[in-house]
Amino acid sequence: MSKPVRQRRPEDRPDEILDAALAEFTEAGFAGAKVEDIARRAGVSKGTIYLYFDTKEAMLKALVEQSAGRIAQGAAALIEAGAARDPVQTYRSVFRMVLTAMSDPDISAAPRLVLSEAARFPELARYYRERVIQIGIGALKRLLETGAQSGVFRKVDLVAAERVLAGPAVAHLMLSTVFALPGDPRPDPARLADQITDIVLYGLTPRTDRP
Q1: pTM of the predicted structure, to 2 decimals
Q2: In which domain, by residue range, is 111 found?
Q3: How much is the pLDDT for 143?
Q4: pLDDT top residue among 42 and 115
Q5: Does position 4 have pLDDT exceeding 50, yes or no?
Q6: In a domain, 32, yes or no
Q7: Is 211 part of any domain?
Q8: Is it the case that residue 126 has pLDDT exceeding 50?
Q9: With helix as H, strand as E and coil as C, how does the chain read?
């Protein structure tokens, strides 16, 4: 008895196209990727691609929304829920979530691609800033302000503090992907996040008030 042919559901097609697009972007580069090659990877016609996505830029933007966009929204939600109750633990939870997510190659692929192509495609850079960076930075600003109002954090320059708090996530992405070398250690993301959080919150000098 022959096996039934697996039917592809139309609702799955956008995700299949995006998976193919990410593979093609990663292999050929964003500029070098061709829609017909993405269609071939996805097993659809070139015309089918355009039913869902007008351009390659639209595909990459959708990939950003699926990865870094969701991370930024998740971080903002955690901060909204926990900042007033416990700013320190909220930052720990947010940073652990972000670092763990960015350690997943499937999630970090689109942000890494945008970082590598941003100079050549400023529209993509602008989109990433609006849909990811500004959401994340805005949430961190609210966390800092809430912590300062409650006396948990001291008042600091917000622009500098935002970069200090967000910087380790960017550094982790770059060091674990773009600049990764064979044999580099692969630390546990949650443990690494906690260690970085301690350094960010308490600095490098001994403190008598450290919990």
Answers
A1: 0.84
A2: 56-202
A3: 94
A4: 42
A5: no
A6: yes
A7: no
A8: yes
A9: CCCCCCCCCHHHHHHHHHHHHHHHHHHHCCCCCCHHHHHHHHCCCHHHHHHHCCCHHHHHHHHHHHHHHHHHHHHHHHHHHHCCCCHHHHHHHHHHHHHHHHCCHHHHHHHHHHHHHCCCCHHHHHHHHHHHHHHHHHHHHHHHHHHHHCCCCCCCCHHHHHHHHHHHHHHHHHHHHHCCCCCCCCCCHHHHHHHHHHHHHHCCCCCCCCC
